[in-house]
Specification:
This protein is mainly α. It has a domain of about 230 residues. Helices cover about 75% and strands about 0% of the residues.
């Protein structure tokens, strides 16, 4: 996991550059106030916990072997560390599958549960991001709006197509990717590809089993509602910090700005979207000229953005790491198997 530490340290570089470029001092961040900062942190952690509740709900809906809802919730929150420390926020699904596998949940069932969790997560974010992109275009911020739409629509569409097509056909690793993996990894690479093929086949078989069931409709709908609610909590985290320092922005506009920034941060350029999220939210707020990152005298936008990023990314990344190590990566004893 040493490379994870390096990745996390790398995420500090963009925010340090921003702080130096715009002369953000410690007193500027302290001016935000403890209450707004803690409220933003609380909203972010509530967002993560709601994601955990959703994962526990999905897991409990499809297996009795997943363990307690509390531990499932903690594992899902801990899995966010992987998303925080990789480009495009991917990887949490592997932690969920790994944990369920330790609980002796069949591989196909484990993969299916993680699949439903990720699809509803992506769809929830995609819906809000597309709305944010459309609003940006209507406001005349064509560049930001187009970037948000070009980022969010393909990602959302791919996952949705995979979800619905999985009930109709079986997916396998493309031959071209299999050949590349074989050349790069030899026999070990081939074994990994074979394992992925087994997971994909298991997901598709399970999808076909549940495709026409009322249970899937209920579970998917409820999970999607929880996903949208969790992303809205994330959007409100910026609102409470902004209002705390007297910056004029509404709750809805705050949510749209955050979801636009989230879509831009999904571009596979930096670890955890570091730097992209900050520039994205500033560009969305400054719709008249999204590439003019300077401020007028007395402007406080960058102070708010940096403070918001610390509350919603840098502190949660430490908390999720602790939960990841404590729950998801710890050994499952016989006593714990009874939970």
């Amino acid at each position: 996991m040493q490379w994870r530490l390096i990745a996390v340290l790398a995420t500090l570089i963009p925010i340090v550059i921003i702080a130096l470029q715009f002369n953000i001092q410690l007193e500027d961040l302290l001016a935000i106030g403890l209450v707004p900062f803690m409220m933003a942190l609380g909203l972010m952690m509530s967002k993560l916990v709601l994601q955990g509740v959703k994962f526990a709900y999905i897991a409990k809906s499809y297996t009795d072997m997943a363990g307690s809802a509390t531990k499932l919730c903690g594992v899902r929150v801990g899995a966010e560390f992987i998303k925080f420390s990789t480009p495009m926020f991917v990887g949490a699904e592997f932690i969920m599958i790994y944990y369920l596998h330790k609980r002796k949940v069949p591989p196909s069932q484990s993969a299916w549960i993680a699949f439903v969790d990720i699809v509803t997560e992506v769809l929830g974010a995609g819906i809000l991001s597309v709305i944010a992109g459309v609003i940006a275009i209507l406001m005349g911020s064509y560049t930001i709006g187009i970037v948000v739409l070009l980022t969010s629509i393909p990602i959302t569409a791919i996952w949705i197509v995979l979800f619905f097509l999985s009930a109709r056909r079986s997916f396998r690793v493309p031959k071209s990717l299999r050949a590349i993996t074989s050349r790069a990894g030899g026999e070990r690479g081939i074994r990994y590809v074979d394992e992925i093929d087994k997971w994909l086949d298991g997901i598709c078989k399970t999808s076909r089993e549940h495709a026409s069931s009322k249970q899937l409709t209920r579970v998917f709908t409820n999970s999607l509602i929880m996903s949208i609610a969790s992303w809205m909590l994330y959007g409100l985290s910026f609102f409470v910090i902004a209002v705390g320092v007297g910056y004029q922005i509404g709750a809805f506009d705050s949510t749209m700005a955050v979801m636009a920034a989230n879509a831009i941060a999904n571009l596979p350029i930096t670890v955890g979207g570091s730097g992209l999220a900050e520039l994205g939210i500033f560009g969305y707020l400054n719709n008249a000229n999204p590439f003019d990152f300077s401020l007028e005298e007395g402007g406080i936008e960058w102070d708010i953005i940096v403070g918001w990023r610390i509350a919603t990314y840098y502190i949660p990344i430490v908390m999720t790491w602790l939960l990841l190590v404590k729950l998801a990566l710890s050994k499952v004893t016989k006593a714990n198997m009874k939970d």
